[in-house]
Amino acid sequence: MGAASSASEQNREENNVWRSLLGSTLVAAGLTLSWSMAWAGQTLDGVRQRGVLACGVNVGVAGFSLPDSQGVWRGMDADLCRAVSAAVLGDPNKVRFIPLTAVQRFIALQSGEIDVLIRQTTLTMVRDTNLGLRMVGVNLYDGHGFMVRRDANVSDIRGMDGMTICMSPGTTNELVTQDAFRAANLRFAPVLQERMQDNAQALQAGRCDAIATDATQLAALRSQFGRPNDYVILEARFSKEPYGPVVRRDDQEWFDVVRWVLNGLIEAEELGVTSTNAEQMRATSSDPAVRRLLGAVPDLGQAIKLQPSWLYDAIRAVGNYGELYDRTIGPNTPIGLPRGANDLWTRGGLMYAWPLR
């Protein structure tokens, strides 16, 4: 099958899944599609009035969003929620974390249950244009992969013919797996479970031969295994999976807030501003870019109706992008992911902040 027809089929399948899920949920909730007008321009005011940010996250993936032994949510996605809260409310702890499965996530955002979705969500054209949502920007570059048992002696997809593969429904991974096996003229038996933790347990118990999802999530799942060295993540990547926050399409003001918080964390790393030196640099730096970033010059905050210290507060709370990455999923964590494509553009990566001026 050609690339164009494959992409068209993927788009149709994803559209049909979403329409079915959304339609049943709206009917059950007594809602109509007039929701798109109800939310215009109200999210920022609503968060302020409520005094808390409702942030949709994964139900639990190490390095991204997972409660620790004290019930505190930890990980890259959880800390991005805190960065938005710090920028908007001046306090990174005013976040209500809403754990969501892949099937639940878009409906929760459309219905207003959450203000922003920061949950390992791939930015695609269909999602950006057909769901009434907006993809804000990229906070992580990833790609679809497969994890198998080491003793299966599999090094590439050709050794996976006939395998039973666990994955989550309603994700791009389901479609990418179908396309990859079809293109290689191979067969597989899917096992669909909403929670990736259930898929991980099924692999360890021998109920499936492999897990199909994005490589960072495979590494996160493996880090929680009792015997992680018994499992191998195959080297090949079968898709582009750029992750990013998602907001409702009809609230441009809120879209701007979330987008520029993300860009601000990346710009902070470019400028050498960290959680530990931000206070000193705000007081002493003569660099115009640093002064704008940290609110010594209030223009940027005024532009999106936030206090001058909005990015200063966010950076002090969670660090710049590099600090955030290294602390949650970087080489010195149990997940152990090198920066690679997620390094700054000046070091060969793809992370590049839009100018804050």
From TrEMBL:
Sequence similarity: Belongs to the bacterial solute-binding protein 3 family.
A Pfam family assignment: SBP_bac_3
Keyword Iron-sulfur attached: no
Native organism: Pararoseomonas baculiformis
Cited InterPro entries: Bact_solute-bind_prot3, Solute-binding_3/MltF_N
Residues in Solute-binding protein family 3/N-terminal domain copies: 52-297
The protein, known as: Amino acid ABC transporter substrate-binding protein
Transmembrane parts of this sequence: 20-40
SUPFAM superfamilies, sorted: Periplasmic binding protein-like II
Keywords assigned: Membrane, Signal, Transmembrane, Transmembrane helix, Transport
